[in-house]
Predict the 3D structure of the following.
Amino acid sequence: MKGTKLVLLKNAVRFVISNLGPADCLSIIAFSSTARRIFPLRRMSDVGRDCATLAIDSLVSSGGTNIAEGLNKGVQVLEQRRESNPVVSIILLSDGKDTYSTTFGIDHQSPHHQDSLNSRWISYFLQLLPHAICPSNGVVVGDNSLPPIPVHTFGIGADHDATCMHAISDVSGGTFSFIQDVNIIQDAFARCIGGFLSVVAQQLKLKIIPLSPGVRICSIPSGKHTSEISNNGKWGVVDVGDLYADEEKDFLVQVSVPVLSADEESPEVIEKFLRFDTLVVVRLLEGYLRRPFCGGLLFFPK
Protein backbone atom coordinates (compact mmCIF):
# COMPACT_ATOMS: atom_id res chain seq x y z
CA MET A 1 0.00 0.00 0.00
CA LYS A 2 1.57 3.26 -1.08
CA GLY A 3 0.99 6.61 -2.72
CA THR A 4 -2.51 8.06 -2.72
CA LYS A 5 -3.99 4.90 -1.21
CA LEU A 6 -1.75 5.12 1.85
CA VAL A 7 -2.48 8.83 2.26
CA LEU A 8 -6.25 8.24 2.16
CA LEU A 9 -5.91 5.36 4.61
CA LYS A 10 -4.02 7.56 7.06
CA ASN A 11 -6.71 10.24 6.77
CA ALA A 12 -9.42 7.66 7.45
CA VAL A 13 -7.65 6.35 10.55
CA ARG A 14 -7.17 9.89 11.83
CA PHE A 15 -10.93 10.25 11.49
CA VAL A 16 -11.44 7.10 13.58
CA ILE A 17 -9.06 8.38 16.24
CA SER A 18 -10.83 11.74 16.42
CA ASN A 19 -14.17 10.00 17.06
CA LEU A 20 -12.96 7.92 20.01
CA GLY A 21 -13.43 9.27 23.51
CA PRO A 22 -11.35 9.07 26.69
CA ALA A 23 -13.14 5.86 27.75
CA ASP A 24 -12.16 4.11 24.49
CA CYS A 25 -8.88 2.24 23.99
CA LEU A 26 -6.91 1.76 20.79
CA SER A 27 -3.77 -0.02 19.64
CA ILE A 28 -2.27 -0.05 16.15
CA ILE A 29 -0.46 -3.00 14.55
CA ALA A 30 1.36 -2.78 11.21
CA PHE A 31 2.23 -5.99 9.40
CA SER A 32 4.06 -7.00 6.26
CA SER A 33 6.19 -10.17 6.38
CA THR A 34 6.15 -9.70 10.17
CA ALA A 35 3.94 -7.73 12.56
CA ARG A 36 4.88 -4.91 14.89
CA ARG A 37 2.95 -2.79 17.34
CA ILE A 38 3.47 0.84 16.38
CA PHE A 39 1.12 2.16 19.07
CA PRO A 40 0.41 0.48 22.44
CA LEU A 41 -3.09 -0.02 23.77
CA ARG A 42 -4.07 3.15 25.58
CA ARG A 43 -7.08 5.34 26.23
CA MET A 44 -7.99 7.98 23.70
CA SER A 45 -7.59 11.04 25.87
CA ASP A 46 -6.38 14.22 24.19
CA VAL A 47 -2.79 13.08 24.67
CA GLY A 48 -3.64 9.54 23.57
CA ARG A 49 -5.24 10.75 20.34
CA ASP A 50 -2.23 12.96 19.58
CA CYS A 51 0.18 10.06 20.10
CA ALA A 52 -1.95 7.71 17.99
CA THR A 53 -1.99 10.27 15.17
CA LEU A 54 1.81 10.51 15.28
CA ALA A 55 1.99 6.72 15.02
CA ILE A 56 -0.23 6.77 11.93
CA ASP A 57 1.92 9.47 10.36
CA SER A 58 4.97 7.20 10.77
CA LEU A 59 3.53 4.41 8.58
CA VAL A 60 5.62 3.66 5.49
CA SER A 61 5.42 1.11 2.70
CA SER A 62 6.93 -2.32 3.24
CA GLY A 63 6.72 -5.77 1.62
CA GLY A 64 4.96 -9.09 2.12
CA THR A 65 1.57 -9.86 3.64
CA ASN A 66 1.40 -11.98 6.78
CA ILE A 67 -2.20 -11.55 7.90
CA ALA A 68 -2.11 -14.35 10.49
CA GLU A 69 0.93 -12.80 12.18
CA GLY A 70 -0.82 -9.44 12.36
CA LEU A 71 -3.93 -10.97 13.93
CA ASN A 72 -1.90 -12.97 16.45
CA LYS A 73 -0.08 -9.79 17.46
CA GLY A 74 -3.38 -7.94 17.83
CA VAL A 75 -4.86 -10.63 20.07
CA GLN A 76 -1.67 -10.66 22.14
CA VAL A 77 -2.03 -6.93 22.77
CA LEU A 78 -5.66 -7.36 23.86
CA GLU A 79 -4.89 -10.32 26.12
CA GLN A 80 -2.24 -8.29 27.93
CA ARG A 81 -4.48 -5.31 28.61
CA ARG A 82 -4.95 -4.30 32.23
CA GLU A 83 -8.49 -2.96 31.91
CA SER A 84 -11.43 -4.54 30.08
CA ASN A 85 -14.01 -2.56 28.12
CA PRO A 86 -17.37 -4.19 27.33
CA VAL A 87 -16.92 -3.96 23.53
CA VAL A 88 -13.75 -5.48 22.05
CA SER A 89 -13.08 -5.69 18.31
CA ILE A 90 -10.30 -5.79 15.75
CA ILE A 91 -10.32 -3.92 12.44
CA LEU A 92 -8.21 -5.57 9.73
CA LEU A 93 -7.29 -3.75 6.53
CA SER A 94 -5.38 -5.15 3.59
CA ASP A 95 -5.05 -4.42 -0.12
CA GLY A 96 -3.09 -7.55 -1.05
CA LYS A 97 -3.15 -11.33 -0.92
CA ASP A 98 -1.64 -13.23 1.97
CA THR A 99 1.83 -14.42 0.93
CA TYR A 100 2.70 -16.27 4.13
CA SER A 101 1.12 -19.57 3.02
CA THR A 102 3.39 -19.84 -0.03
CA THR A 103 6.28 -20.48 2.37
CA PHE A 104 4.59 -23.76 3.22
CA GLY A 105 4.15 -24.85 -0.37
CA ILE A 106 0.52 -23.82 -0.81
CA ASP A 107 0.51 -21.28 -3.59
CA HIS A 108 -3.06 -20.03 -3.77
CA GLN A 109 -2.09 -17.57 -6.50
CA SER A 110 -1.57 -20.36 -9.02
CA PRO A 111 -4.01 -20.38 -11.97
CA HIS A 112 -6.23 -22.89 -10.17
CA HIS A 113 -6.62 -20.47 -7.23
CA GLN A 114 -6.41 -17.21 -9.12
CA ASP A 115 -9.75 -15.81 -7.93
CA SER A 116 -10.31 -17.53 -4.59
CA LEU A 117 -8.71 -19.84 -2.08
CA ASN A 118 -9.73 -23.48 -2.09
CA SER A 119 -11.18 -25.13 0.99
CA ARG A 120 -7.87 -26.84 1.79
CA TRP A 121 -5.98 -23.56 2.01
CA ILE A 122 -8.75 -21.88 4.01
CA SER A 123 -8.71 -24.71 6.55
CA TYR A 124 -4.95 -24.45 6.78
CA PHE A 125 -5.00 -20.68 7.13
CA LEU A 126 -7.65 -20.63 9.86
CA GLN A 127 -5.49 -22.98 11.93
CA LEU A 128 -2.89 -20.20 12.08
CA LEU A 129 -5.32 -17.86 13.85
CA PRO A 130 -5.52 -17.57 17.66
CA HIS A 131 -8.33 -19.20 19.60
CA ALA A 132 -9.76 -15.79 20.50
CA ILE A 133 -10.55 -15.25 16.80
CA CYS A 134 -11.19 -18.83 15.68
CA PRO A 135 -12.73 -20.68 18.68
CA SER A 136 -12.35 -24.07 16.99
CA ASN A 137 -8.56 -23.83 17.40
CA GLY A 138 -8.43 -25.46 20.84
CA VAL A 139 -8.98 -23.84 24.22
CA VAL A 140 -6.88 -21.12 25.75
CA VAL A 141 -6.04 -21.75 29.40
CA GLY A 142 -5.33 -18.89 31.76
CA ASP A 143 -6.86 -15.84 33.35
CA ASN A 144 -6.10 -13.70 30.30
CA SER A 145 -8.07 -15.80 27.82
CA LEU A 146 -10.70 -13.85 25.89
CA PRO A 147 -14.16 -14.61 24.55
CA PRO A 148 -14.27 -14.66 20.73
CA ILE A 149 -13.12 -11.31 19.33
CA PRO A 150 -14.98 -10.16 16.20
CA VAL A 151 -12.66 -9.13 13.38
CA HIS A 152 -14.11 -6.59 10.97
CA THR A 153 -12.17 -6.93 7.73
CA PHE A 154 -11.78 -4.36 4.97
CA GLY A 155 -10.51 -5.45 1.57
CA ILE A 156 -9.19 -2.44 -0.32
CA GLY A 157 -9.02 -2.48 -4.11
CA ALA A 158 -9.25 -5.33 -6.60
CA ASP A 159 -6.07 -7.10 -5.45
CA HIS A 160 -7.12 -7.92 -1.89
CA ASP A 161 -7.73 -11.51 -0.80
CA ALA A 162 -11.53 -11.52 -0.56
CA THR A 163 -11.89 -15.20 0.33
CA CYS A 164 -9.34 -14.97 3.11
CA MET A 165 -10.79 -11.75 4.55
CA HIS A 166 -14.33 -13.12 4.41
CA ALA A 167 -13.27 -16.34 6.16
CA ILE A 168 -11.65 -14.38 8.99
CA SER A 169 -14.73 -12.23 9.58
CA ASP A 170 -17.04 -15.25 9.34
CA VAL A 171 -15.29 -17.44 11.95
CA SER A 172 -14.88 -14.53 14.36
CA GLY A 173 -18.40 -13.12 14.06
CA GLY A 174 -17.24 -9.91 12.42
CA THR A 175 -18.09 -8.27 9.10
CA PHE A 176 -16.40 -8.06 5.71
CA SER A 177 -16.42 -4.89 3.62
CA PHE A 178 -15.10 -4.49 0.10
CA ILE A 179 -13.81 -0.99 -0.59
CA GLN A 180 -13.47 -0.69 -4.35
CA ASP A 181 -12.89 3.06 -4.35
CA VAL A 182 -10.21 4.18 -1.89
CA ASN A 183 -11.93 7.56 -1.68
CA ILE A 184 -14.72 6.04 0.45
CA ILE A 185 -12.46 4.43 3.06
CA GLN A 186 -13.41 7.07 5.62
CA ASP A 187 -17.14 6.50 5.09
CA ALA A 188 -16.70 2.74 5.55
CA PHE A 189 -14.76 3.31 8.76
CA ALA A 190 -17.42 5.68 10.03
CA ARG A 191 -20.12 3.01 9.69
CA CYS A 192 -17.94 0.41 11.39
CA ILE A 193 -16.98 2.63 14.33
CA GLY A 194 -20.58 3.78 14.65
CA GLY A 195 -21.53 0.15 15.17
CA PHE A 196 -18.94 -0.34 17.92
CA LEU A 197 -20.24 2.65 19.81
CA SER A 198 -23.91 1.64 19.60
CA VAL A 199 -23.82 -1.88 21.05
CA VAL A 200 -26.78 -2.13 23.44
CA ALA A 201 -26.72 -5.85 24.27
CA GLN A 202 -24.13 -8.62 24.37
CA GLN A 203 -24.25 -12.42 24.55
CA LEU A 204 -27.91 -12.38 23.55
CA LYS A 205 -29.66 -15.77 23.37
CA LEU A 206 -33.18 -16.27 22.02
CA LYS A 207 -35.17 -19.23 23.37
CA ILE A 208 -38.28 -20.32 21.45
CA ILE A 209 -40.96 -22.48 23.12
CA PRO A 210 -44.10 -23.74 21.29
CA LEU A 211 -47.19 -23.18 23.45
CA SER A 212 -49.59 -25.46 21.60
CA PRO A 213 -49.74 -29.20 22.41
CA GLY A 214 -48.18 -31.45 19.80
CA VAL A 215 -46.14 -28.72 18.08
CA ARG A 216 -42.44 -29.53 17.79
CA ILE A 217 -39.51 -27.47 16.55
CA CYS A 218 -37.74 -29.29 13.70
CA SER A 219 -34.97 -26.87 12.75
CA ILE A 220 -33.80 -23.27 13.06
CA PRO A 221 -31.77 -22.28 9.97
CA SER A 222 -29.84 -19.47 11.64
CA GLY A 223 -26.91 -18.92 9.29
CA LYS A 224 -23.67 -18.19 11.14
CA HIS A 225 -25.55 -17.96 14.45
CA THR A 226 -25.33 -21.25 16.32
CA SER A 227 -28.61 -22.85 17.38
CA GLU A 228 -29.71 -25.77 19.53
CA ILE A 229 -32.95 -27.78 19.66
CA SER A 230 -34.01 -30.11 22.46
CA ASN A 231 -34.37 -33.81 21.66
CA ASN A 232 -38.15 -33.64 21.94
CA GLY A 233 -38.39 -30.39 19.97
CA LYS A 234 -40.09 -28.54 22.82
CA TRP A 235 -37.62 -25.65 22.76
CA GLY A 236 -34.90 -24.13 20.63
CA VAL A 237 -32.16 -21.60 21.35
CA VAL A 238 -30.36 -19.23 18.97
CA ASP A 239 -27.07 -17.59 19.98
CA VAL A 240 -27.64 -14.09 18.60
CA GLY A 241 -24.50 -12.45 20.04
CA ASP A 242 -24.20 -8.67 20.10
CA LEU A 243 -27.08 -6.39 19.18
CA TYR A 244 -26.74 -2.81 18.00
CA ALA A 245 -29.12 0.12 18.40
CA ASP A 246 -32.10 -0.15 15.99
CA GLU A 247 -30.77 -3.46 14.64
CA GLU A 248 -33.24 -6.19 13.69
CA LYS A 249 -32.58 -9.91 13.19
CA ASP A 250 -35.00 -12.41 11.65
CA PHE A 251 -34.86 -16.16 12.22
CA LEU A 252 -36.80 -18.92 10.46
CA VAL A 253 -38.27 -21.64 12.69
CA GLN A 254 -39.47 -24.85 11.03
CA VAL A 255 -42.06 -26.75 13.07
CA SER A 256 -44.11 -29.92 12.94
CA VAL A 257 -47.83 -29.60 13.79
CA PRO A 258 -50.38 -32.36 14.49
CA VAL A 259 -52.50 -33.68 11.64
CA LEU A 260 -55.83 -31.86 11.51
CA SER A 261 -59.17 -33.29 10.55
CA ALA A 262 -61.07 -31.85 7.61
CA ASP A 263 -63.34 -29.70 9.77
CA GLU A 264 -60.36 -28.30 11.68
CA GLU A 265 -58.44 -27.03 8.65
CA SER A 266 -59.12 -23.32 9.06
CA PRO A 267 -56.79 -20.34 9.45
CA GLU A 268 -57.96 -19.87 13.04
CA VAL A 269 -57.07 -23.43 14.03
CA ILE A 270 -53.69 -23.31 12.29
CA GLU A 271 -52.90 -19.99 13.95
CA LYS A 272 -53.70 -21.57 17.32
CA PHE A 273 -50.98 -24.15 16.75
CA LEU A 274 -48.42 -21.54 15.75
CA ARG A 275 -48.23 -19.73 19.08
CA PHE A 276 -44.81 -19.41 20.66
CA ASP A 277 -43.30 -18.03 23.80
CA THR A 278 -39.88 -16.38 23.50
CA LEU A 279 -37.34 -15.87 26.22
CA VAL A 280 -34.41 -13.53 25.70
CA VAL A 281 -31.30 -14.01 27.82
CA VAL A 282 -29.04 -11.02 27.35
CA ARG A 283 -26.31 -8.99 28.96
CA LEU A 284 -27.64 -5.45 28.75
CA LEU A 285 -25.28 -2.51 28.55
CA GLU A 286 -26.82 0.14 30.74
CA GLY A 287 -26.47 3.87 30.28
CA TYR A 288 -25.81 5.70 27.06
CA LEU A 289 -25.75 3.96 23.71
CA ARG A 290 -22.14 4.99 23.25
CA ARG A 291 -20.10 2.16 24.75
CA PRO A 292 -16.43 2.24 25.77
CA PHE A 293 -14.57 0.51 22.96
CA CYS A 294 -11.37 -1.47 23.19
CA GLY A 295 -9.69 -2.72 20.07
CA GLY A 296 -6.88 -2.64 17.59
CA LEU A 297 -6.37 -1.51 14.03
CA LEU A 298 -4.28 -3.76 11.82
CA PHE A 299 -2.70 -2.33 8.70
CA PHE A 300 -0.86 -3.72 5.74
CA PRO A 301 1.28 -0.88 4.36
CA LYS A 302 2.66 -2.68 1.31
Notes: The first strand starts at residue 25 and ends at 31. Residues 3-18 form the longest helix (16 residues).
